[in-house]
Amino acid sequence: TEEALLLRYVERSKFLISLRRFSEAADTCREAIELFAGRAGDPLAGIILTAAYNNLGDIAFYNCTTTRNYDFSDYEKAASYFSTASEWSPACQCVIRGYICPVGSPAEEGEFEKAIAAIGAFIPYTVCSLNGGYYGLDSLAKTEYAWFRGDLAQVETYARQAVYQAREKNQWEIEAWALFFLLRINLYAGNRAELRELIKQLDALLAISEYFNRYAVNNVIMGWFYAQLGAAERVGPWLKNDYYELDFDDRSGASFQTLVKAKCCFAVKRYTATLHILNTPPEETARSPDRHAPFLLGRLEQNLLRAAALIRRSAEDTETSAAEALRCLEEAWRMAAPNGLDMPFIELGEEMRILAGRALRDKNCAIPRDWLEEIRGKASAYRKRLLKIYQGPEYSPKPREAPSLSWRETEVLRTLSLGWSREQIAEKMALSVNTVKAEIRSIYAKLGAVNRVDAVRIALELNIFSR
After folding, report:
1. pTM, rounded to two decimals
2. Cis peptide before 106 (omega within 30 of 0)
3. pLDDT for 129-138, tens place per residue?
4. How far is CA 70 from CA 60, 98, 113, 120, in A?
5. What pLDDT is attached to residue 156?
6. How many degrees, rounded to 5, is the angle at CA 202 between CA 380 and CA 253?
7. 76-80, 144-148, 399-403: which has the minimum mean pLDDT?
8. How far is Cα 332 from Cα 344, in angstroms, rounded to an integer?
9. CA–CA separation, 54 vs 88, rounded Å?
10. Distance between CA atoms of residues 68 and 410, nearest Å
11. Residue range 379-404: average pLDDT?
12. Torsion angles phi and psi, residue 104, rounded to 5
């Protein structure tokens, strides 16, 4: 039947792509093409062939990081069959995972420009065969590249163009990420009024019920924003947990969501948790590391956050963490230098000032001293602008009140801080182990903690033990 054929070839290949089983998906698409290519004028054949070639285009797009092959001509073939696809007009939302330019690491000379040009070349065809799909993605890719290079005037131009194009074709996720880059440049410039307006526009996207990914994307974007600003109390609890809770997959491997989760832990000074998140790949990537080489930009930002967490932890772990932090900084610099990708270093703010100072004192550091001095100055100035915004009425932190703990909960918490096991606590306090477990769960809930270390840290911040 027609429905069975669509399920077998169209839906199955799309499902396999979502599972990152690209080889099987491509085989399904090619089987469909072989069976239906000779059925000229058949509306069902037109649907299946359009979908098959679009899916092959998606596979090529997802894999170009590793193949370095930017031939997306299958999208053009899909458009050529679309006219025979009866009344089929699929709604297509372009799904963005935080990094747009599909460039692997290390990036070859001119690879960013090559990738962006290839994206721009296929969009007219996807707009036809995917009901506006990907419209504005080339402008968004240009925005991203301009941002990482620090060309703020071009970021403004390309991002607003992406917003306009996305709204024209209902590509809401492209609009959301374009607004995110506008958020970043206005955060960099310290434009408080413009930031308020951009946040309103991002919130307005939450009212679009057809935009199925809206809450996850908004959480991640605003999580990044508040973590960057230092307003960690405004970040959703799930983003501050030191475990994986992936609400959507990530075709870039170096997940932006992973970066944001780590960034949120960093914002509340949980440096070990930050490193845990950055050093633990998602399950799918761990099982099949060859399927997705991380995008260069994702690797760059994660490496810099790793360096920042290590240099902060070095106060507790002496020279070991400091040496590793400089190694991560050098690696990030080598990734960024060929294409002048300086902005991620500047966005580190105070951490970049500390890292640069440490690197300047290290005679073996390979990073040019003049570059370190320049970036340190820009990062310090950026941090001062962040502080001015954070101290404004919109984001200024409200003093956190200590929760009301019972005498027994306080005593259990005190013994937890001493490293006692649940069995030892039960014996000391003449309680059953199950009662101790219940008390610990209650303590975690009241403090908003996720584990023992987190609970003790919060208790120390709120001076609970001194009462």
Report:
1. 0.79
2. yes
3. 888 889 999 9
4. 8, 20, 11, 11
5. 96
6. 70
7. 399-403
8. 10
9. 14
10. 58
11. 77
12. -85, 175
